[in-house]
Design goal:
The structure holds 2 protein chains of 2 kinds.
Chain A lengths: L11 E3 L17 E3 L9 E4 L2 E7 H6 L3 H8 L6 E7 L6 H13 L3 E5 L2 H13 L19 H9 L7 H11 L2 H5 L3 H6 L5 H12 L7
Parallel strand pairs in A: 1-2, 4-5, 5-6
Antiparallel strand pairs in A: 1-3, 3-4
Chain B lengths: L2 H7 L5 H12 L3 E4 L5 H12 L5 E5 L3 H13 L7 E3 L5 H10 L1 E5 L1 H9 L10 E4 L10 H12 L4 E6 L2 H4 L5 H8 L5 E4 L4 H8 L4 E7 L3 H24 L10 H4 L4 H9 L8 H22 L2 H18 L1 H7 L12 H15 L2 H4 L17 H14 L3 H5 L3 E6 L2 H13 L1 H17 L1 H13 L9 H17 L10 E5 L7 E7 L6 H12 L3 E4 L4 H13 L6 E7 L3 H26 L23 H6 L7 H7 L15 E5 L7 H7 L3 E5 L6 E2 L4 E7 H9 L2 H12 L2 E7 L18 H17 L4 E5 L2 H12 L7 H6 L4 H9 L2 H8 L9 H7 L3 H5 L3 H8 L2 H12 L2 H7 L1 H13 L1
Parallel strand pairs in B: 1-6, 1-7, 2-4, 2-5, 3-4, 5-6, 8-13, 9-11, 9-12, 12-13, 14-15, 17-18, 18-19
Antiparallel strand pairs in B: 10-11, 14-16, 16-17
The chains are: A alpha/beta, B alpha/beta.
Family (chain B): Belongs to the XPF family.
Organism (chain B): Rotaria sordida
Protein name (chain B): DNA repair endonuclease XPF
Amino acid sequence: GAVPSSSSSSSLLVHSRQRGNPLLKHIRQVKWEYSDMILGGADYSMSRSSCALYLSLRYHQLNPNYIYDRLKSNKLPYQLKILLVQCDLTEPSQSLKELARLSIIYDLTLVVSWNDEESAKYLETYKIIEGKSAENLMDLQQYQSTDYLTKFIDMITQVKSINKTDAQTLLHGFGSLDKILNSSNEQLCVCPGLGQLKAQRLYQSFNQPFKRQK
Amino acid sequence: MDIEEKLQNNNGILQYENEIILQLYHEDGLLILAKGLGLERIFCEIMKLYCAEHNLVFILGCSDVEQTYFIEQLINDGIDPPPRIITADISINDRKELYIQGGLFFVTARILTVDLLTDRIPIDLITGLLIYRAHRITDSSSESFIIRLYRHKNKIGFIKGFSDSALDFTRGYNQLECVMKNLFLRHVYLYPRFHITIRSTFENCSPDVIELQVPLTLLMTDIQVSIIELINACLQELRSSTTWIDNDILNIDQAILNSFERLIHLQLQPIWNQVSIRTKQLLNDIKTLRLFIFYLTQYDCVTFYNAVQAVFINEKLYGSRGKNIHSSQGSTGSWLYLPAADRLLMTSKCRVFGESAKKQIQQTKENDEPLKLEENPKLKLVSDVLQEIRDNEDNKLLGPPITLIVCAEDRACSQLKQYLLLGGRVMLERLLEQTLNASTTNETTKESETKKTTEKKGKKTRTTTETKEEESNENSNIDNKPEIEGIEGGYVIEDDDGSTSPSTTILYPFSGNIDNHFVLGKILLKYRPRFVILYDASLTFVRQLEVFKATNPQHPLRIYFLLYGKSIEEQRYLLSVKKEKEAFESLVREKASMVIPEEREGRDEYNPLLSRDVTPANQQAYGTGAASTIDQTDTRRGGLFPMTTISNIHPKVIVDIREFRSELPSLLWKRGIDIEPVTLEVGDYILTPEICIERKSVSDLIGSLNNGRLYQQALQMTRFYKRPMLLIEFDQKQAFHLANKQRYNSSEFSSHDLTSKLALLTMHFPKLRVLWCPSPYASAELFEDLKRDREEPDTKSAMLVTAESELLDDDERYNTVVQDLLIRMPGVTFKNYKLIMNNVENLRALSQLNENELTTIMGNSKQASLLYNFIHKQKDDLVLDIKSKTTLNNTWKKRR
């Protein structure tokens, strides 16, 4: 049922016209509820200052006037107005160009996603980070609930040409990051799959000073 | 002197080379030569023809090694002045002066583009362009842009392209035609190995080849059979799981080929985001298995076992499959649980530990049976061959023999060296000690290990005799160093202990670096080996040997071709020969049917490439098929930006100099927009006095979101421009959220990570407009659109905008690669990463700090603890962490 929007600002508000949008299934990390009282009639409202309109490119192609009509009829009194576009066309070039123009005219922030999960993830994130400071832009690790190996791989593959398999063999062969960081070039070379070049690159990144020498 | 005479006086030139050089000299064209037949020799001769001050010739596409080689070569031949290398270190004024003096210049595409655009080069005075590696030219490459800029104003100069990669021209649709079009060339000269002149050149001087086949050991054959079986299983599943891939690619004959992955990639690329996770996983599995085949003959038994074991353990315990089991994807097919996989693992183990390992699944440390440590049969063969070479009768006459051994990879070379110096048993025992034992007997060695690392020169604690031996080896290595000067990455063994006849053996790998074959050519000329052992076969190198022999007909050259009989290795080699032949055959056909327009060379005004007109982006990029929606949208929304054609004056975009690595500037130019290259501190493109755009490719975007740079850039843009924009250029064919897949295939982590960071950025900068473009063509079109009816940007004021010094300093002050590693460690945040970088020397030093020290530096005990645990987490703890997952695996295993 429709709950007055003021009382439930902790939830992500979803306009009932979005009912049946498959992305809703994927919103798991935040509470959400239907509401028809969303300010300006936006599709989603993440906070008092941010809202989102949803548009599937395929739909847009069939009903090109829809989004213009929406924007003309609804004034959106928000600081941040997201146009969440789901890219479900194989040839999105023209539509995206057109929407770029539109976003400039109507002061919208264009966000493109490729599937329902991703769209949901964007909405979730906007809800979660509402009110977070800019500095947190860099501190996002607290939102990452991934395991050690993934983090390890994510880090070590920053070294050029080191791939996931290399990362795994490294961890398997040495047992810990600590040992990897402290190994010699030759020791790294012994790891299967690591040629001289890769070993050297690793060794260099571990032993190169953080500060550039002048 | 006439060119024909010049060439006749040069004795070293082979018959076919002579023919090619004459053709290329008289008529501009693209040369495609078979691999290994000395493209660099021909290129050198061509350069010689133009080495004179009254010429102004630019050479594109050479690597650093090649540049130095060519210059050396020309100096040796008494050419004055030799070509010069133009780098960014040479100031603009010095560059200008050099250009006016004339001569030959090696130059990077970026510098040449900028210098052409800013009229630092008198374009009309350029004698010509020499393009090496011409197969890399595409519609959008910066070389194409350069050639267009050049032909636009210079109608007389020459253009000559060179390539030895026929295969690259058969990839994709009409590739040859496309390259020729971009090079403004009407002629292509095809010189396959089966070309009549080339055949006749080599007919009478083929080297002495001895082919030695050695069978794989029984265990190795077993392993090979298991791997093939596993690949087959994966292929079968792939066939049933996807309809995207042609079934005739999905057979084992194709799957063992080097080209397999590329073929699959070609088919899947356009629809990559629709491919199921399971299919991707299967492709990944096949990739791993293919790697095993390669490892089997390349690596020793210990390394091979390690590689296999690592995959097994990782995948079973905490691989992506573990996750998939409880996800809805339900990946049912996993080769790890097939009987052949067990056989693979067991047999690999047998090769190291002996038969008994087969019986007991858990390997006990106290094993009475001696280790098996099976040697690869080829190793023995090499030492036999070397003995034969030493005993050769001719040595008395011709002096001590010099032997060159080539392997595929550096590791094989270094192992072969160890094998020859130490013997197989010792080599393998050492390896075992270094790898397996180190990880299984953790507790006992831990203490000694930590001691070792604290000692400056961690001498290994072994028996004294062994250390002595090692020391002597190290010494001999050092003694050899000056010998290998100029062949970095190779090994030399001098065998001169008096007892046997002296000999020199050089080891060098042919892959790993693009320049390797090039260096091998140099080694041949410098050391003139009488014997060559092909430990692994390389088509290119075999041809190089032919050329070497042909240019030195008197030099005795014997080649030992080592092959594992009935192995995949042999098939791969033969197929690579066949592939190149087929590529040439198809190029010959393509050439015969090619229709080349008169105006192709662009020497008059009619070449369409030189017109700077406006065609919709999707037509330029993907042919005319996709144009259906344009008219409709353009007329309907036309009211927003009324169309007006501006004649005479070209619109202008100011472009940051660093952006010339991308193709966008050339596409803008093509659309009739003038480009003004300057060094911008804020933004990449200035379209109007208000619009400033920062362009990010997906990989740039990920990087700059992670290290916080994009945040700074957005801040600067919003500060100085009324309409700041972020342009995200994604590859149309690879969905944005999957862009990371080349790096690690199934990580959901990065996409989510990226999503949230992008969300935060946009949230913080609501004024920042985000533009999404599927290709640079689309970006160019959008730029034109954004500029329409708006004021032109002013270069002076754009240059006056300066970023805050802090931002620039950061880039200069810290090593960015290391910074990227650091920022990804748990506990490290944007607030504290600088503290760490300022107070700790490097990553190694970071790993040696204890938790308290970290807390002091980072100023936060919670984050310090996160970081400390990340660095010091032991693999064994990890196994405990995920035990729950393993049990899940087991029940699942039973269910199968």
